[in-house]
Design goal:
The structure is a single chain. The chain is α+β, with helices and mostly antiparallel strands. The chain contains 12 helices and 22 strands. The strands form 5 sheets. Strands 1, 2, 9, 10, 11, 12, 19 and 20 form an 8-stranded mixed sheet that branches. Strands 13, 15, 16, 17 and 18 form a 5-stranded antiparallel sheet that branches. It has a 4-stranded mixed sheet with strand order 6-7-5-14. Strand 21 and strand 22 form a beta hairpin. Helix 2 packs across helix 8, helix 10 packs across helix 11 and helix 10 crosses helix 12. It is globular.
């Protein structure tokens, strides 16, 4: 029996696992996918929100501001990219200026620092490509951008090296409350736990409703995005929002931490909790509405589109705490935007709840830091040449678009919770994220996976686990 089982290895589950790994407890994370960061956490706006949007007094507002303040130090401790580039909420009609003032006042009450309204003249200086219709904007200097993959992976890796067990390809099918703890039924057998943390994203309602008479409903809200090439990455320098509506923060235009330009997301409530397909209507909406705040976006530079699902709770609030009629079952549900920003604070809150309930004691040997995949592009020429002399794999370019080397891919495979798929390598190194979208590097990456992962053949290499095999055919036994 584990002390704690966490369902879900997205950013909330990984943050909870990392914080709980500070304590003397046996902890296991169950994830139905083949890797961490395979659900909502892998397809979002990658924004570190300042915290002016959430309702005053809400848990969402509190954890947003706390998470924002934690992000810079966390990025240094766990070695993932983060930049405080600031955000702008643009008003394009004098008749809606009151909306900016309302956001300003809400943000001040939420504890957001440095908020102010900038008029058009200053706004154009800050963003030369701002819409000709823009009249003013709310400026939040504490807004930022982050790599959502590396944040999620860093939290999980750090939890793992501090003793947390991760079980992938393990789908929870049922949960039974027992006299002492819980039995969690999975496709890979039963797991027993004293306490359960429900961090299952869009499926969090399913597991909550298995153990509680007080039902919750999580709606899958799809958002379509377009990602532009790095040649368009400097079109804006801040994250540019339109004034928000009841469906969310609208279409944003933002640089990414890696130098691309991102536009989106739309907001469409769907029944299919696996419905991450883009639609023509959604992409058209993202393209059209992005022009409301930013002009001359070079849409011919789009290199890919994608869709993500937000775990929208009907009350638009985070649900974090012990279920009233099921002691020992801790919900971490409804973690939609600004969930990525709030995730470090969400992890602390979950850990604090369990520490108090279980009387957990802190470890003496907790490892608080982690190093990410080495990036030769960040080195000087002399340092890079010295690295290649020591390890020639760092001189062998596999992904030409992103200049990713064999050495980086080997690191991604052999590090804690190492990659076992093309997407796993991509999320850790960016191999395949460039202009050609893995057209050149996929075969080379597959060869490395086959060579480096014990028991792997080309037939075992997938895009993202499950049934996403790349090589199929009738001659499997000959390989």
């Amino acid at each position: 029996m584990f002390d704690i089982v966490i369902i879900g290895a997205g950013v909330s589950g990984a943050a909870a696992a990392r914080e709980l790994s500070r304590y003397n407890a046996s902890i296991c994370v169950l994830e139905k996918a083949e890797d961490v960061c395979s659900g909502t956490s892998k397809a979002n706006s990658a924004i570190v929100h300042a915290g002016f949007d959430a309702a005053n007094g809400s848990l969402m507002a509190k954890l947003n501001v706390q998470g924002n303040k934690m992000m810079e130090q966390l990025s240094k401790d766990l070695d993932f990219p983060f930049k405080q580039n600031g955000s702008l909420v643009v008003c394009t009609d004098e008749s809606t200026r009151d909306g900016l003032q309302a956001l300003l006042e809400r943000g001040i009450k939420n504890g957001v620092e440095g908020l102010r309204i900038v008029e058009r003249e200053e706004l154009v200086e800050m963003e030369p490509n701002i819409s000709d219709e823009a009249v003013a904007a709310l400026y939040a200097p504490t807004g930022g951008i982050v790599c959502p993959f590396n944040l999620n992976i860093a939290l999980a890796e750090n939890a793992y090296v501090n003793g947390v067990e991760f079980r992938f390809n393990t789908e929870v099918t049922d949960i039974r409350k027992e006299e002492e703890g819980f039995t969690i039924c999975t496709n890979n057998g039963d797991v027993r736990a004293r306490y359960v943390v429900n961090a299952a994203g869009v499926y969090a309602d399913k597991f909550h409703n298995m153990v509680s008479e007080k039902k919750i409903n999580i709606i899958a809200r799809r958002g379509d995005y377009c990602l532009l090439d790095k040649t368009a990455g400097t079109h804006v320098s801040h994250t540019v929002f339109a004034l928000p509506t009841k469906m969310g923060k609208g279409i944003l235009v933002s640089p990414t931490i890696h130098g691309n330009l991102l536009i989106g997301p739309t907001a469409v409530d769907i029944e299919n909790k696996e419905g991450t397909n883009t639609t023509r209507e959604g992409l058209d909406e993202a393209i059209t509405k992005s022009a409301i705040t930013v002009k001359n976006i070079p849409m011919r530079q789009v290199i890919t589109s994608f869709a993500g699902l937000r775990a929208h709770e009907e009350g638009h609030e985070f649900i974090i705490g012990e279920v009233e009629d099921c002691p020992g079952f801790i919900d971490c549900a409804g973690i939609e935007s600004p969930g990525l920003t709030a995730s470090p604070a969400v992890g602390v809150m979950v850990a604090d709840i369990l520490q108090e309930k279980m009387g957990l004691t802190k470890k003496d040997n907790f490892i608080a830091t982690r190093k990410g995949v080495l990036n030769p592009e960040e080195m000087s020429l002399e340092e890079r040449n010295e690295l290649i002399k020591k390890n020639p794999a760092y001189g062998n370019i596999i992904c030409r678009c992103e200049m990713i080397t064999e050495g980086e891919i080997l690191d991604a495979i052999h590090r804690p919770l190492g990659a076992r798929s093309l997407d796993g390598v991509k999320r850790r190194t960016r191999a395949g994220m460039g202009r050609c979208q893995a057209g050149f590097c996929s075969p080379r990456t597959m060869e490395i996976l086959e060579r480096e992962v014990p028991g792997f053949t080309m037939y075992d290499v997938t895009k993202s686990g499950g049934e996403s095999a790349i090589v199929v055919g009738i001659n499997k036994d000959r390989i």
